[in-house]
Write a structure and sequence with these properties.
Layout: E1 6-7, E2 12-14, H1 21-51, H2 58-87, E3 91-92, H3 94-127, H4 132-135, H5 138-164, E4 168-169, E5 172-174, H6 181-186, H7 193-226, H8 231-239, H9 242-259, H10 269-292, H11 295-314, E6 317-318, E7 321-322, H12 331-335
Parallel strand pairs: 2-5
Antiparallel strand pairs: 1-4, 2-3, 6-7
Helix pairs in contact: 1-2, 1-10, 1-11, 2-3, 2-10, 3-5, 3-7, 5-7, 9-10
Subcellular location: Cell membrane
Function: Odorant receptor.
Family: Belongs to the G-protein coupled receptor 1 family.
């Protein structure tokens, strides 16, 4: 590649979203609605899990991590995309591009790894129910999540540092609505073989290893379910996995549609739709598919609303002391303070 018109700190223009004024207004409203809906759903789910002691179980601990990651994942790309739709500018600095790319990779990898961890949790709950409280202790759950965060940050840091050493053609358009590895490598005027080889190796490891682990976990789960004598028992066992399976299918289908394609200088409308689904729609649907239709979560949300209403109605100073939220926690919930880990029969997605 020619070295002329190259820079270590170029500026880019994100041109993946339509510049048509009518389409921009429609897409702005659509993406803003999805973004706010995702924020609301994940925040409500986090509130329910944190405040209700009955949800202090391994499954909901992993689910709270997933909700937090999805909040950060959508916030990494969507506000910038909304701003570009509103101003129809799309300009982004090199440092801003690398920052967005770093956090995008971190949260995308965390989504992938958390789906694997949740599959391991389902495997332990269904295939080893008597050992489950000993297998999924709070310490081990914390280690699983901590290692996932460490791996995600390390891999993203390696990619970002290597990209920062490259030179890029100046005043170039990125045919996407956020900074991604492929378009940036295409615009580089340096030798990118090391970046491409490392990206393929790490992407293969982080992409295939969790997927193979999920497939292996569910192969053991289905084999265990087939040995259950009653049809009702089989339905109950599979019901604990249905939400997780549906989100695994949605996550990997959009992921493969976005990245398993020949390299190109431009993105078709279908590829952009897949990328929007992967970065915005999937994190928005997660809290609804996973838990907002779950009886435990619904009960927790109802309890929180009732407590807030009661606190609003009776928030008066009694002898100079204001009633606090903790005053409304029932003795039943205090009694459940040591309920984690609970038996797997209590741990259900649906």
């Amino acid at each position: 590649k020619a070295r002329m018109n190259c820079s270590k700190t170029p500026g880019f223009v994100l041109s993946g979203v339509s510049n048509d004024a009518g389409k921009c207004q429609f897409l702005f409203l659509l993406f803003l609605t999805l973004y706010l809906l995702g924020l609301l759903g994940n925040l409500i789910l986090l509130l329910a899990i944190i405040t209700d002691i009955r949800l202090h179980t391994p499954m909901y601990f992993f689910l709270s991590q997933l909700s937090f990651v999805d909040l950060c994942f959508t916030t990494t790309t969507t506000p910038k995309m909304l701003g570009d739709l509103w101003t129809r500018s799309g300009s982004i600095s090199f440092s801003g591009c690398l920052t967005q790319l770093y956090f995008f990779a971190v949260f995308a990898d965390m989504d992938n790894l958390l789906l694997m961890v949740m599959a391991i949790d389902r495997y332990a709950a269904i295939c080893h129910p008597l050992w489950y409280p000993l297998l999924m202790t709070p310490c081990r759950c914390g280690v699983l999540v901590g290692v996932s965060w460490g791996v995600a940050h390390s891999v993203s840091l390696i990619h970002t540092i290597l990209l920062s050493q490259l030179s890029f053609y100046i005043n170039q358009d990125i045919p996407h609505f956020f900074c991604d590895f492929g378009p940036l490598l295409w615009l580089s005027c340096s030798d990118t073989h090391l970046n491409e080889d490392l990206m393929m190796a790490l992407a293969g490891f982080l992409g295939m290893m969790p997927l193979l682990c999920i497939i292996s976990s569910y192969a053991h789960i289905f084999y265990a379910v087939l040995r259950v004598p009653s049809a009702q028992g089989k339905r109950k066992a599979l019901a604990t996995c249905s939400s997780h399976i549906s989100m695994v299918i949605l996550f990997y289908s959009t992921l493969f549609a976005t990245y398993l394609k020949p390299p190109s200088t431009s993105h078709s409308s279908g590829e952009l739709v897949a990328a929007v689904t992967y970065t915005l729609v999937t994190p928005t649907l997660n809290p609804f598919i996973y838990s907002l239709r779950n009886k435990d979560v619904k009960s927790s949300l109802k309890m929180i609303l009732e407590q807030l209403k009661a606190q609003t109605a009776y928030s008066t100073d009694l002898g100079g002391v204001s009633l606090r939220y903790s005053d409304w926690i029932s003795l039943e919930h205090l009694h459940l303070a040591h309920a984690w880990p609970r038996l797997p029969s209590c741990i259900m997605y649906n």
